[in-house]
# Entry
Amino acid sequence: MSRFLSERLMNVTPYTPGEQPQDQKYIKLNTNESPYPPSPAVLDAVSRAEVEKLRLYSDPACAELLNTAAKHFGLRPSQIMPGNGSDENLFFALRAFCDEEHPLAYADITYGCYGVWCGLMHIPSRIIPLKEDFTLDPTDYYGLGATIVLANPNAPTGLALPRSAIEGILKANPDNVVIVDEAYVDFGGESCVPLIDQYENLLVVQTFSKSRQLAGARLGLAMGNEKLIADLNRVKFSLNPYNINRLTLKAGQAALEDTAYFDTTRAAIVETRGWTKQELEARGFSVLDSRSNFLFASTIRKDGGELYKKLKEKGVLVRHFDAPRIGSWLRITIGTPDEMRALLKALDEILEV
Ligand code: PMP
# Structure
């Protein structure tokens, strides 16, 4: 242990990212990326001329991207802030709207980074257990007196709340910011973006990592009331004014504009998710009703950890979740149809059907 580490930092448990093997050995179904390449428009946008401009800083205001995003979402540019992945926007939001006296409320289970950031910034956590069936009771979040973050659809369960349920939470917490993390919303969730002009306490965070094929470019958008966005900009311009690099700005803009490619790829994933769920159920798995680009599944036929290991040996990488309250589950990203057939074949061999 380094003698230079402060006591405070030693209490921080960092997030463990999913495995990112740097070879092509695996069918990679572990970190909810898109199995499809970025839109051809992205390849054109990230041009040689743009690479040559890398000697210059990027636009700190991200004006072009914001104009495109504003048109796309029916908002004003001043209601949007781009982040280096939605992770950065979520972190900025916690920095802006929570501190040692202002806790953050979130579900158990949900995206692991919320708790990690609370640890790092000494923000007290108000952890609210999901129900036995992994659904979330919106009334648990009424009048909490805390900033709230909800992943909708949730991760790793994939379950989604209707917009009306989030509206109930917004109304019941008028003096607190409610952050809705919509990383997976494009695969069948109901976005809260249409509520932005009605609720000044609503901050929606979306990402380009899942439905827009740009996980490696790192781009997300925070969208909300102008005052909330001004607060986020205060944090951004204090920490990292050039947070979005030139290539990502171009890539993001092109991805947003290619709505046809977006629609085709997300429809393909939703369709593949449908039959993969049925095939898993036919093999005795319990599979939650996912509105995301992954399935959360478990079976009494074999321990999740054992399945994860055996699948990995066969070249299929999934994510294993294990906790006393939930048991042992696999989170399986939806890949191409061929990748899912390979997963099912590997499972059949492991389970000896
Ligand atoms: N929110 C949720 C619920 C996630 O699962 C993830 C990543 N898998 C993120 C946010 C962060 O995504 P990114 O930083 O790539 O936008």
In short: Residues 71 and 77 are 9 Å apart (CA to CA). The domain at 7-37+260-351 is CATH 3.90.1150.10 (Aspartate Aminotransferase, domain 1). The longest strand covers residues 327-333.
